[in-house]
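Severity: low
Component: inverse-folding endpoint
Summary: output formatting inconsistent between runs
Steps to reproduce: submit the following structure tokens with default settings.
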């Protein structure tokens, strides 16, 4: 800062400034004196005579002058690490996006005789002040500047390319880029986004740029059939996630989402969004190390101004293939309980005391059992049901999410407790069950209507008759509306209304349930024929250790049970239905699916409880290949 510039800022002559700073200001009014002295102090002006006396010795002090320091914690960590490793200290200034404040800091840096400076200019015109440093032979490293002068920058364009590439790997071709207006980072991410599309021969139009400030940007997603989003800012991703949920659209089932993540302040555990971490710390370390090379005159080549550090996605939890390329999912509408299992010598009887040998508490309910069974077999599944406002509900959510069951259809009833099942289990696997319905009894037809978006892209709907008939009927009707087929386990029904039966594609009663529904017939064949004549298209009557009986218009056939030792028969039917739907949806024939389902049921009854005993796909298919390899002629989807 020169005396001429001080005079210009104060609106006085050079001689007036000279008199004031040399205490020869007797004839200058106090207002002018105070104005000049204020500017002299603000801009750290040092008279030329004093500058000549300054030592040329190194101070081992580096300056850092930032546009704004509000979002650079990790970068400063990297700068400080490099400085300390090389024996330097740091003097930090924040311009707060003000060119006036920036200039004041520049003069302070000169006064403190820094050896070098990392400078993030407020704007391109800030470069006009670099002569203050050049006159003192102070080396500079610009960061975050535009292309108009050499500046170190993180390669946001490459990161935008990698985000886009990740969606392309998952077969997305209708992709948009979510940006912030007037953001250099957003501009560069969009540049990489565009280049990636070009390299993969995919068309690009400006309509693929969406701005978070545009109130109508959400409406553009269905208009342009967008299936994947690249976001330049994590905060924008969170806003999109929330708006999607409000509209009953979900990530990643309806839209895949990838984003850049700024720093540790954005290490948010929920919602999980697949992200690339911006390498601010590594960038700060790199720039500071280059500056020190300049200060010590050991830099022998032009530095690489564009910085890129290898970074992996923290997860792929918010990425899926587009829904139109995925196989149909399965929807389960049913009860959700906590199962309390009591191992006993014999089942409780009136007037007798039953001794409990051991107990176990697990997730249960036919809805939850079937949903977990489907998920373990590799299918996408949504569960619709009710839980209470208690500790049991937290355990249920935790378990279902661990088992990768979609839980958007589960509602927490604040006025009820979660359903409970009390299961008494004998040594031979036979059981007796008592039920506390709890929140399950509050699921209504209106709830089904409000959650009907979950039936989109569904191939099968699994229905539990432990719910009320109006709820079952509404769910069956809604599934049909979206093109799904219904499978009903009539566990607690005494009759199946004709209106409901017309919407049932597969009826799966056990022998006792079949006898209750049509007591006028004694044989399995007669019972199956009765259900068929009353509208059921396919009937499978399960027979425990004797297998099952299948009846359709063209098939009447018994299937033997798989060869497993029975330990707990509680969830055998749930395992059977889960596998039946999972393999039917992949294109296996009805008979093949029934055979596979008998193996799944066998695995389940050979272990205690239900959810822990449900078999995963790998184990099931390995077992089948050893016994009936021809069953698995289809490729896994």
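Observed output (run 2 of 3):
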């Amino acid at each position: 800062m020169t005396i001429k510039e001080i005079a210009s800022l104060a609106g006085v002559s050079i001689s007036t400034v000279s008199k004031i700073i040399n205490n020869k200001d007797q004839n200058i009014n106090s207002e002018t004196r105070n104005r000049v002295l204020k500017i002299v102090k603000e801009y750290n002006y040092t008279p030329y005579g004093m500058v000549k006396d300054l030592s040329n010795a190194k101070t081992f002090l580096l300056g850092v002058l930032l546009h704004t320091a509000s979002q650079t914690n990790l970068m400063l960590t990297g700068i400080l690490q490099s400085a300390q490793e090389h024996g330097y200290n740091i003097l930090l200034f924040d311009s707060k996006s003000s060119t006036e404040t920036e200039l004041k800091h520049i003069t302070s840096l000169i006064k403190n005789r820094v050896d070098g400076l990392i400078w993030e200019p407020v704007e391109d015109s800030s470069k006009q002040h670099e002569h203050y440093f050049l006159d003192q032979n102070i080396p500079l490293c610009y960061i975050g500047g535009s292309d108009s002068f050499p500046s170190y920058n993180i390669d946001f364009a490459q990161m935008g390319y990698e985000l886009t590439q990740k969606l392309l790997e998952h077969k997305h071709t209708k992709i948009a880029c979510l940006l912030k207006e007037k953001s250099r980072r957003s501009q560069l991410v969009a540049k990489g986004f565009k280049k990636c599309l070009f390299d993969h021969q995919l068309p690009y139009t400006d309509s693929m740029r969406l701005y978070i400030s545009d109130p109508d940007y959400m409406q553009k997603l269905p208009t342009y059939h967008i299936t994947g989003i690249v976001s330049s800012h994590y905060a924008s991703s969170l806003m999109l996630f929330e708006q999607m949920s409000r509209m009953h659209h979900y990530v990643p089932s309806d839209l895949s989402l990838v984003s850049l993540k700024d720093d540790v302040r954005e290490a948010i555990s929920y919602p999980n969004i697949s992200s690339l971490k911006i390498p601010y710390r590594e960038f700060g370390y790199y720039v500071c190390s280059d500056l020190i090379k300049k200060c010590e005159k050991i830099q022998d080549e032009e530095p690489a101004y564009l910085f890129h550090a290898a970074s992996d996605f923290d997860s792929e939890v918010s990425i899926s293939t587009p829904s139109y390329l995925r196989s149909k999912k399965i929807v389960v509408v049913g009860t959700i309980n906590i199962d309390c299992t009591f191992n006993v010598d014999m089942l409780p009887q009136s007037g007798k005391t039953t001794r409990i040998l051991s107990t176990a508490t697990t997730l249960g309910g036919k809805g939850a059992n079937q949903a977990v069974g489907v998920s373990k077999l590799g299918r996408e599944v949504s569960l619709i049901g009710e839980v209470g406002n208690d500790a049991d509900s937290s355990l249920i959510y935790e378990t279902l999410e661990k088992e990768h069951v979609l839980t958007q259809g589960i509602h927490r009833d604040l006025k009820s407790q979660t359903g409970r099942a009390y299961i008494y289990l004998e040594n031979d696997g036979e059981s007796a069950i008592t039920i506390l319905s709890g929140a399950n009894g509050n699921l209504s037809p209106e709830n089904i209507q409000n959650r009907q978006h979950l039936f989109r892209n569904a191939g099968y709907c699994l229905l539990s008759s432990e719910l009320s008939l109006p709820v079952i009927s509404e769910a069956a009707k809604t599934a049909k509306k979206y093109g799904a087929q219904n499978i009903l386990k009539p566990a607690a029904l005494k009759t199946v209304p004709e209106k409901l039966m017309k919407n049932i594609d597969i009826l799966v009663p056990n022998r006792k349930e079949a006898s209750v529904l049509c007591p006028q017939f004694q044989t399995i064949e007669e019972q199956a024929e009765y259900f068929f004549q009353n509208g059921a298209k396919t009937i499978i009557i399960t027979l425990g250790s004797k297998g099952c009986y299948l009846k359709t218009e063209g098939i009447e056939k018994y299937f033997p049970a798989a060869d497993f030792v029975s330990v707990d028969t509680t969830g055998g039917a749930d395992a059977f239905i889960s596998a039946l739907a999972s393999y039917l949806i992949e294109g296996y024939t009805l008979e093949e699916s029934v055979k596979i389902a008998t193996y799944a049921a066998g695995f389940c009854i050979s272990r205690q409880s239900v959810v822990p005993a449900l078999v995963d796909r790998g184990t099931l298919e390995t077992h089948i290949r050893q016994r009936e390899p021809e069953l698995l002629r289809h490729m896994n989807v």
